[in-house]
Amino acid sequence: MSPEQFDILVLGSGASGKHVAWHMAPAGGRTAVVEWEHRMIGGACPNTNCLPSKNEIWSAKVADLVRHAAAYGTVTGPSSVDMARVRQRKRNMVEALIAVHMERFRASGADLIIGKGRFVAPKTLEVRSDGKTRVLRGDRVFLNLGTHATIPDVPGLPAAGPLTHVEALELDRLPGHLIVLGGGYVGLEFAQAYRRFGSRVTLITRAPQLAPREDPDVAGALLQIFKSEGIEVLPSAQPVWVQGRSGDHVSVRVRSPDGEQTIEGSDLLVAAGRTPNTAGIGLETAGVELDARGYIKVNDRLETTAPDVWAMGECAGSPQFTHAAVDDFRVVRDNQAGGHRTTRDRLIPFCMFTDPQLARVGLNEREAKSRGVEARVATLPMSDVLRAATTGETQGFMKALVDARSDRILGFTMLGAEAGEVVAVVQTAMLAGMPYTGLRDAVLTHPTMAEGLGSLFAKVPARSTR
Ligand SMILES: Cc1cc2nc3c(=O)[nH]c(=O)nc-3n(C[C@H](O)[C@H](O)[C@H](O)COP(=O)(O)OP(=O)(O)OC[C@H]3O[C@@H](n4cnc5c(N)ncnc54)[C@H](O)[C@@H]3O)c2cc1C
Ligand SMILES: NC(=O)c1ccc[n+]([C@@H]2O[C@H](COP(=O)([O-])OP(=O)(O)OC[C@H]3O[C@@H](n4cnc5c(N)ncnc54)[C@H](O)[C@@H]3O)[C@@H](O)[C@H]2O)c1
């Protein structure tokens, strides 16, 4: 079968791939985008990951506010959570987003082909779509394959049919006792949401603290917040075996420095990291090499080991955030136009949508220490932020790192309400090269959470004169 010829061939319609198509097709390049499934059009962010999880987390916030409404002077009757309605609200959003994506593909002129792509020769894909086999060849090929939830190698775990975030977001019932395996982003966001919906929740993580990449004081404060909501947390706990079926009854044997114990629950959610979608699709036939962890080898321009083939987003080992994957597209786009943009030295913030949110940009103390960077550190409890006093959201704190020898801001962490918004203020100052004194002395709106930045930066210790 002679291949159908395209100028631009995109495999995966995620955060980077869709932008490649939407940018290049209107410019006149004959463009095809191959996407595995209709329900994944636009990638994981709008369909199974960021947006649906934040949608249900918001429903959990509403449940929590209703539960505590009396503290604010609103007296309610008994309340309950209807997970079928929670799910329907989420589904409505996802379906609307798929429609928006399909319209953008149509308007761009790109050919959106639904089916699993597999390389049969360099720059040549075979796709089974609508019962037909198509062979597509691109002059330039862009890979945006994403990742899926890793199921750790624990005896009995696969047979227990655990939930991942994908199935958890499709539940129309409330688990009686949800056991969460993993204390990173997914585990923390889902553990708190399900607790607020009304489940008993036990979180097991092999790391010694929640949010393992964060500073111990941040993780400690988060742990206290989780405990105060009744979430049981087992740190430094390694699962030994699993028995039973998630959705019915499941037992997890865990080993920790305190000994072994068996946790009994109704459902099991695995949130133990990600595996790239790079296996079994003929990448070796295409000359695209993988690293030891299965991620596509790329240079800082996101060029793979195969000529005229680029990889973007999580499959290329980029930071696992939608905004990083979108920036990967911008790196590739600008270089296609003759630019010299790289993935080096990007300032990539994050926000974990626990309540309160945990957001960070730049270095934390742990990273500064490991890189031998000397920093001046200031912290401010959220209870000192006047906006927090008005809303009652006084949990958590802000922390700033400023260079020991100059007034350059090195990093900012916030565990507090609206942290995801406040971090953007500090990021903007960092991008502009503004000294910390600029934020310290700025006239910020009263009473906002960002106003706290003035008090925070006023606490930065003076530079040592030594
Ligand atoms: C539960 C959860 C919540 C998250 N929340 C956030 C958040 O709040 N903020 C944030 O920034 N990040 C969040 N993330 C991370 C974020 O979802 C990803 O980093 C982001 O979606 C970027 O993904 P990507 O573009 O690399 O790949 P994807 O979006 O996964 O795109 C890859 C696409 O390729 C398709 N595909 C793969 N292989 C093939 C093949 N062989 N043939 C055809 N199609 C194929 C897939 O179906 C998919 O649509 C979250 C992750 C999870 C798991
Ligand atoms: N708000 C956001 O931006 C957001 C939300 C969700 C996910 N994400 C992205 O998705 C990525 C994946 O999230 P994740 O939570 O799956 O991974 P993660 O890397 O954030 O956390 C994995 C956790 O699982 C634990 N773990 C791993 N193997 C284990 C085992 N065998 N037994 C017990 N514990 C084990 C680790 O110690 C860690 O606590 C994140 O790194 C993040 O970049 C982002």
TrEMBL record:
Disulfide bonds join 45-50. Its cofactor is FAD. Residues 6-327 form the FAD/NAD(P)-binding domain. Binds 1 FAD per subunit. It comes from the Bacteria. GO terms for molecular function: dihydrolipoyl dehydrogenase (NADH) activity; flavin adenine dinucleotide binding; NAD(P)H dehydrogenase (quinone) activity. Residues 348-453 form the Pyridine nucleotide-disulphide oxidoreductase dimerisation domain. NAD(+) binds at residues 182-189, 273. InterPro entries: FAD/NAD-bd_sf, FAD/NAD-binding_dom, FAD/NAD-linked_Rdtase_dimer_sf, Pyr_nuc-diS_OxRdtase, Pyr_nucl-diS_OxRdtase_dimer. Keywords: FAD, Flavoprotein, NAD, Nucleotide-binding, Oxidoreductase. SUPFAM superfamilies: FAD/NAD(P)-binding domain (SSF51905), FAD/NAD-linked reductases, dimerisation (C-terminal) domain (SSF55424). It is an enzyme of class 1 (oxidoreductase). This is Dihydrolipoyl dehydrogenase. Belongs to the class-I pyridine nucleotide-disulfide oxidoreductase family. Its EC number is 1.8.1.4. FAD binds at residues 54, 117. The active site is at residue 446.
